[in-house]
Amino acid sequence: MKKEKEIIESLFKGTGVTINGSNAYDPQIHNEDFYGRVLREGSLGLGESYTDGWWDCESLDQFFHKVLEADLDNRIKKNWNIVFELVWSSVLNMGRKSKAFEVGEKHYDIGNDLYYAMLDRRLTYTCGYWNHSTNSTGSPQAGSGHEMTLDEAQEAKLDLVCKKIGLKRGQKILDIGSGWGSFMGYAAERYGANATGITVSKEQKALADTLYGNLPVETRLEDYRDIKGKFDNIVSLGMFEHVGYKNYRTFMKIAHGVLEDNGLFLLHTIGGHQSVKGTDPWIEKYIFPNSMLPSIQQISKSIEGLFVMEDWHNFGADYDKTLMAWHKNFENNWDTLKLNYNERFHRMWRYYLLSCAGSFRARKNQLWQIVLSKKGVPGGYKSIR
Prior knowledge:
The chain is of the alpha/beta class and 385 residues long. The protein is 44% helix and 15% strand. Strands 5-4-3-6-7-9-8 form a 7-stranded mixed beta sheet. Strands 1-2 form a two-stranded antiparallel sheet. Helix 8 packs across helix 9.
């Protein structure tokens, strides 16, 4: 055990993090078995041991920011457990149709009360757009000295999407992975669009039907491979992370087939620096089963011969602010939430939100909005920020 502790401590050298140190970002170890567990199980052991209460950290987001900024993940990437995960996921098609509804059941269906407590008033479960531009509700422009609220940042994002696709009154728009209907509701209310969305979550569909029953909005419980019809524009906000690299080309062919020739497709997705075939083992097991982050190369290969790439916008740093806002809401509402969720869930969800915030802060993950056309916009596409 002493040797295991020495190895872990040596790994943290150069990161600024000290085991049992005095800083808010220093992990405090309560169970000495922590060291062997992390060495044997990598990131899965790190996350599970936190959920089990084996260690604590006053500022988890700072902890992950520091270790990821120091490239600790790359220094230990030859850990056999991680290699095994990547090899196994390359054999299995984790995004295959038979598993399409699993993430809905295990993540999005766990309780609308959780998402009401954590998200903005529209239940927008994607990255907000913070202090960049004025949205249609008159939110302040960047540099005005006003710090946006989560509600304002999410409306700014929804409005940005509408503007990027040039949404017009009466147009038919498809939202692939529509969640609780936040974008569709906004597009119908503010732009007069007719919106159709698909989700693999029964709870999301039921609530979206209730929230937007008075608007020209339809939510279907459907896999993207079953989409039929024609649409003036398409958006997909935070769903592509569930598609899987073996299905990227299929996804793009489906989108191409249902998009009108002069329409635009806006893809909003988290992205990674390198092409991978799986995801972090802890995230896979506890948060987003069958998920993975696409790379620039994987996306570009999937659209080749189908779409013209008109615009590629990265505002990944904004996901740090979004996740921290979700975490603040989650903690502020825990006294109510704990009536339905136990302390283990509390620790798991905190770990999820703050580890992801630290990752975006270290710029390990990105948030891309990509605008695609079928034949190229005549005269050129005008980028909107």
